[in-house]
Amino acid sequence: MIDIRKVAVIGAGVMGRGIAAHVANAGVPVLLLDVVQPGAANRNALAENALTALRSARPAALMHPKNARLVTPGNVEDHLDRLRDVDWIIESVVEDLAVKRAIYDRLQRARRSGSIVSSNTSTIPVRQLVERAPADFAENFLISHFFNPPRYMRLLEIVAGDATRPEAVASLRDFADLRLGKGVVFCKDRPGFIANRIGGFWLQCAMHEAFAEGLDVEEADAALGPPIGIPKSGVFGLLDLVGLDLVVHVGRSLAANLPSGDAFNAIGDVPPLVRGMIEDGRTGRKGKGGFYRRIEQAGRSVMEALDLTGGGYRPLHRAPREAGPQPGPREFYEQPDRANRYAWRVMSRTLRYAAEIAFDVADHLLAIDEAMRLGYNWRHGPFEMIDALGSGWFAERLCGEGLAVPALLEQAKGRPLYRIEDGREQGLSADGEYVDQPRSAAGIRIADLRRSRKPLLANGSASLWDIGDGIACLEFHTKMNTFDAGTLAMIGQSIAIVGQRFKGLVIGNDAEHFSLGANLGLALFAVNVAHWAGVEELVKHGQTLFKALKYAPFPVVGAPAGMALGGGCEILLHCDAVQAHAESYIGLVEMGVGLVPSWGGCKELLLRWMQNSRRPHGPMPAITRTFETVGTAKVSSSAAEARDLLFLRPTDGITMNRDRVLADAKARALELARDYKPPAPPAASLPGASGRAALLLALSDLAKKGKASPHDVVIAEKLATILTGRNIDITETIGEDELLALERDAALDLLRQPATLARMEHMLDTGKPLRN
Prior knowledge:
Layout: E1 7-10, H1 14-25, E2 30-34, H2 45-56, E3 71-75, E4 88-91, H3 97-110, E5 116-119, H4 126-129, H5 135-139, E6 141-146, E7 155-160, H6 166-179, E8 183-186, H7 195-213, H8 217-223, H9 236-242, H10 244-257, H11 272-279, E9 292-297, E10 300-306, E11 313-315, H12 329-334, H13 338-361, H14 365-376, H15 382-389, H16 391-400, H17 407-412, E12 418-421, E13 424-428, E14 434-436, H18 446-452, E15 457-458, E16 462-466, E17 471-476, H19 485-501, E18 504-508, H20 520-528, H21 532-550, E19 556-559, E20 562-565, H22 567-573, E21 577-581, E22 584-587, H23 601-611, H24 619-631, H25 639-644, E23 653-655, H26 661-673, E24 683-684, H27 689-704, H28 710-724, E25 734-735, H29 736-751, H30 754-766
Parallel strand pairs: 1-2, 1-4, 2-3, 4-5, 5-6, 7-8, 17-18, 18-19, 19-21, 20-22, 21-23
Antiparallel strand pairs: 6-7, 9-10, 10-11, 12-13, 13-14, 15-16, 16-17, 24-25
């Protein structure tokens, strides 16, 4: 095995610098090299400019600004000798075989024997890249295809050549999994590999069918979007994001390398209107617009959509939100509306194509499903979609439309493509037998537990699972994992059962987001019917349960991923430890809905700042930092930044791979359980009225400058009262219960104010905060 401790990226373009940034996010030094521009005074200009661009990139390429220090810019004329210290060299230059081979000749002379070299190509097979390479180079060469942006897109396709050493493959797989947090999918050496082969077909098919049906781009994106588990960008939004020129390049490359009978060849070309858009520079977001564009109109930013029939732009057609339960997949595709017919024509052909090429591009079905979920953000892969429809039903409908049924579906004979056998996930093989499906990363997944066993406790909002070795896991499963009465009830029941039967508790789930806090709709309903006793009980009950978690006789480890906002952040603040996914966005955002944190969030964050050894002496610096963080509803842009804000402690762990978070949290709980003792109750010295006056003076200045709205001021005054201890004497100390009472009083008072109700209603209606 090769210990990868230093990496080099050759090519500082958008992909190259993005890869370099993500290697730095893993805490690994990376050398970023590019060519020397003719006549340039600064021979490192391309790489240095790329590093500057990384620091200001949006979305952020770096998980923390300090990670930029791990990227060293240079050039391929003066600095190739530095490759002697590098364990993995990533080539990310233009998709031109001759250019790549010329780079490899130079790398072979400069690299250390045995170091790994890979290409980020998305279209050129390994066999062509190493056709003329010496043995030592070919033995250590493979394709490592990242998806853009590398920080956020989890898929890494790895393609080994016939000569590639197994040690090189295993070393890169483990590094990508554990350090870079990638879902590694092994692909066969075929054009486009997996994700772009199927995804490219899907995009081209969707584009042609939309033109043929005369659909609006918004109508097409709505049909090929959330109703079938695809991001709301749909097809045309994704084309704009990727870039029409790149899509055309990938399509041409596929068409040039695929067998003549491949179904892609029938749709590989783009409509004439799209060719004209590219010639005009309308390549999407990076160009002058694409199928959508944003313009300034009467001092406002306005989004327009392309008219596919005439080629001009027009205002967006806003589709009404559909309320009520959504139809199942069969019901959706059987509806007669033209949008549903369009979705069926595109998806049926895409799923059929995936089934046709399955074992030509991968060794097992799960590799294809993982590639499409991780590379295109589909909620379900193509074979999972077929199982949801029923393989027999799908095959019959294809046959009824005069389409040939792929051999895989003939082999299935109406059986599901996947099954669970003795707790193992199995999928059909090319000969129609079920075989075990290897996962890209080992870990604990609630979805796997659900297939093979029942929870210890469950209701409609949450479940408690036995995850082995004396550790239980509390899973939330409401919409966006918000807290309601069922969630709170399960927290209380979990504390009781874990205390009797387990060593520790992990709080986490498989969902996209850990928790978005309290269910605003339920709270707003209680307020609107003036059920004040119920509102007060909700606040008090949450405080009591979170405090019980903090002082439970067993360790509690939070395992967040995605957003942990409001109450989702507060429950983490009460855990003994947190093992967070690197992409965790944590914050106390109650200000946006007219409230203050009232389940102990103010209390816990204040205590953390007061116990922080880096803060200046005295209570006011800690109070000021807490006031600023809560009052501006700051949300961390990563787990690393959450440490700066003290939503995470310096001792809390960060896991790069989403699939490993629960397993790492379980390991942390077992570690804490060895000699666990609950924390001692704290007491704080707060300044009282004088401290509050100082905070309100600064608040008054913000209001005068227009940086704080009238209701911002009202909420901030309540927050200042909590953080300074109201009228406490500076010589006295205040305990947790008194701070919780202050939080509770503030929340109940704010909930009686019309401006708070307006903020709550606006958030529920639009998903955005109201500044009233």
